[in-house]
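User: I'm writing a short methods note and want a consistent example. For Baseplate J/gp47 family protein, I'll paste the sequence; you return only the structure tokens, no commentary, since I'll be parsing the reply automatically.
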Amino acid sequence: MPFKRPTLTELREQNRQYLSSELSGVGQLLRFSNMGVLADVDAGMAHLHFAYLDYIARQATPYTSTDEYLAAWAALKTVYRKNATAAHTDRYQFKGVAGSHISAGVILNRADGYQYRLDNEVVTGDDGYGYGAITARLPDPATDITGGGAKGNAPAGTLLTLDVSVAGVEVQGVVIDPLTGGADIEDEDLFRRRMLQSYQNPSEGGGDNDYIAWSLAVSGVTRAWVKRRIMGPGTVGVYIMCDGDDRTNHGLPVGTDGISSNEDWGAPKATGDQGRVADAIFAVQPSTALVWVCAPKQLPIDFTISGISSAGKTTKAAIEQAISGVIFENGSPDGKGLIMISELQYALSSIPDAAGYVMLKPDQNIHNQPGRIPVVGKVEYV
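Assistant:
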């Protein structure tokens, strides 16, 4: 049976009634009387004690703990909150006079003020072009509590400007390969979910849940699925998504599929986001498995809805958000499970202004396909 915590008003009233009943001849306590003030002070202290006990109760279990207590509960299962990571690219292009030197550590600015640092010295070639690797400079957590890692991701073609001019080099350059790998400090709810998953699924020496947990421990990775024998006997496939970063690839990982760069097996090596996950798994996986980390291909699902063609933009946006939520929760590239029409209809029925709709397409449950991640396609109103 749940405990009903009394409010401050209730505690004050209880104290006043108690004093009035226990002291003879006092009568009704006046607002500023000594006994009235004493009753209110005592009620305030009791309210603080109730608040502290409530706080202790929340921190006493992994399911409701927060902040440093959540981190402590998670550490018991060797699960740690993911720090912000900086975006990086190996190919940034400078242009200038042949033979010009650009020193390592030079700062580059994006149009919105986000900064990057040159990782290595660059010398422009005979054609006037020079190429170097750059890494984002994470902002001070005191000014950006998210860590600012995801903001550093940027597509190929992004223009950056030298913070301080360099002799013989044009001020503006261009990103050749996308800036990827940037991720914010892990959200507390996602951190708690990973911790609870670890408590609920003890290590099994290389079971599906182990590969999922190892993948989710990598910064920027938000979802993961396992596909056994993806490339034949002895292989394990891991599909990943990086939903926190929609700047470059709509949540899909940026990189190429393959195995860890630490593997000596003659197979393609994963790069980018896939490479980071493959290398992280390599350090903890069973020695007999050959792990492939892959990006799923999008599987657009078109919808045709009748009966509400005159609905406003707000209603249509709510409908598409509801559809996207159901697909996000139930779609997977491991070929298991399905997206049920009943769940889509239930989600739409919760939107007040969508009353009277009829879903014409799809008209049957949507089965997940191996290697494909369902996404919302075209939503048509007729």
